[in-house]
Every structure is written in C-alpha cells, then in structure tokens.
Amino acid sequence: MTAGYAAESVTREKLVQDLKAVVNDAEELLKATAQQTGEKIAAVRARAEESLRAAKSRIAEEGAVVVEKARVVAKTTDQFVKENPWQAVGIGALAGLVIGILISRR
Predict the structure, then answer these.
(1) What string of pLDDT tens digits covers the 106 residues of the chain?
(2) How far apart are CA 12 and CA 53, in angstroms?
(3) Which DSSP state fits 36?
(4) What's the rounded Cα separation, in Å, for the pair 61 and 52?
(5) Closest Cα partner for 77 from 61, 95, 60?
C-alpha cells in the first residue's frame, strides 16, 4: 500500500510541477502580448486567462491533496513505529541493506 501511494504521490507532484510550468509560461505569454489588439487576440487572451485561473485552482487543490496524504502517511508511520519499535528497526535495517547492495552493484 505504501509503495503504491509513493508512486501516486510522485506522479501527482510531477503533474503539479508541470502545471506550474505551463501556468508560468502562459502568464509570460499573456504579458508579452498585452499590447496586441484585435478581436482574435482578445478572444484568445480571454480563453487563456480562464484556463490559467482553472489551472491555478487545480494546482492548489492537488497541492492540498498531496500535503494531506503526506500528513496521513507520516502519522501512520509514526504510529507504527511507536507500536512496533523493533519491527521498525528491522525494516529500516533491511531497507538500508537493500540500498547498500544496490549501490555497491554500480
């Protein structure tokens, strides 16, 4: 369950980063074309501004979801460690051993 959550969290974080990059690029584009006039430009700018507002809202929502899930995982991990300290030490040692083996292969 934790590994699946970690992969989902990384994917969400990447999505949020990508959306932020798109928003920043779009904002720069809107600023660069601010002096342009005409019906088509105005319509495109209006759509772009609406898309930016929607993207910013989604970024905020996804960010809140990521933070909340991280908080839940941290709380669950903390509770597990408090209830099973020796198992937690064993899991940590095993993880360290596996990482050490993987690093030494390179």
Answers:
(1) 455 556 666 677 777 777 778 777 777 777 777 777 777 777 777 777 787 788 778 778 877 888 888 899 999 988 988 998 898 889 899 999 999 998 988 7
(2) 19
(3) -
(4) 14
(5) 95
Q: Which residues contact 25 (CB under 8 A, 6 or more apart)?
A: none
Cα angle for residues 33, 14, 47 (degrees, 5° grid): 30
CA–CA separation, 75 and 70 (whole Å): 9
State the Cα torsion 66-57-18-51 to the nearest 10°.
160
- Calculate the alpha carbon distances from 72 to 46, 62, 76 in Å: 39, 15, 6
